[in-house]
Write a sequence for this structure.
């Protein structure tokens, strides 16, 4: 098998294994594309995890999931050798594959309150963040406005045998009303202010992890809904740099 066991969290939140569903899908280490060699090998991935730990990432399940997920398959072949650098990389259409630290940080913030059942991701992009989430939560709903990126991401989900992902071509600034409410929402592009529509789609005690700002300054923010009220606790985490959250569909 590509990975050593089948689940990551049990329903009590206990860490059991880095990658979910592997025994069900039958992926094998005979695929060099997934297992990696040279600059995509497990040793190289291990160095990335050390860097993430040095930067303060402490959630063991998040770290193990990132270590075992083949980030190089989310890039064009010419950039695959840079997959385990802690940097954002281009994926075309003026979009990027987020820096591993940011993926880890946002995922860690999302999971801070415990296991999640239903998560909405705004901006599928390459599908890398989606893949990390799909191994840590029950169900991931993801929307992408650029059709060619979504087509590639879906192909990667099939290649990895991932379950529990529902993806749609859609303008992410409106969330996904039909599937709401969500226990958590994460956005991989930055609006200039927090969209009220996303807040309305959070379940009681739900959490929104979102970069907010303009092209000069952005901050990663966490908004937590207080019970079933429409009050929110807000935390400003750190400065970040994301592509802007745009409306409309691009085919």
């Amino acid at each position: 098998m590509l990975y050593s066991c089948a689940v990551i969290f049990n329903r009590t939140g206990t860490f059991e294994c880095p990658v979910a569903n592997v025994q069900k899908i039958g992926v094998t280490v005979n695929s060099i594309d997934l297992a990696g060699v040279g600059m995509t090998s497990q040793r190289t991935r291990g160095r990335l995890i050390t860097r993430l730990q040095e930067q303060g990432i402490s959630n063991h399940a998040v770290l193990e999931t990132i270590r075992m997920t083949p980030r190089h398959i989310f890039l064009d072949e010419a950039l695959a050798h840079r997959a385990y650098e802690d940097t954002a990389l281009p994926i075309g259409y003026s979009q990027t594959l987020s820096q591993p630290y940011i993926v880890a940080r946002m995922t860690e913030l999302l999971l801070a309150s415990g296991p999640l059942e239903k998560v909405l991701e705004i901006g599928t992009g390459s599908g890398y963040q989606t893949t990390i989430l799909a191994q840590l939560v029950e169900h991931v709903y993801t929307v992408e406005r650029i059709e060619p990126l979504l087509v590639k991401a879906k192909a990667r989900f099939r290649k990895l045998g991932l379950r529990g992902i529902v993806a749609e071509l859609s303008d992410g600034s409106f969330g996904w009303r039909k599937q709401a409410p969500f226990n958590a929402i994460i956005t991989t592009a930055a609006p200039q202010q927090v969209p009220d529509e996303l807040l309305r789609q959070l379940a009681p005690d739900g959490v929104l992890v979102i970069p907010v700002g303009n092209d000069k300054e952005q901050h990663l923010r966490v908004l937590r809904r207080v019970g079933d009220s429409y009050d929110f606790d807000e935390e400003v985490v750190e400065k970040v740099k994301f592509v802007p959250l745009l409306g409309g569909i691009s085919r």
User: Anything to note?
Assistant: The two ends are 37 Å apart (CA to CA). The chain is about 25% helix and 25% strand. The chain has a mean pLDDT of 87. Residues 22-240 form a domain with the Rossmann fold fold (CATH 3.40.50.150).
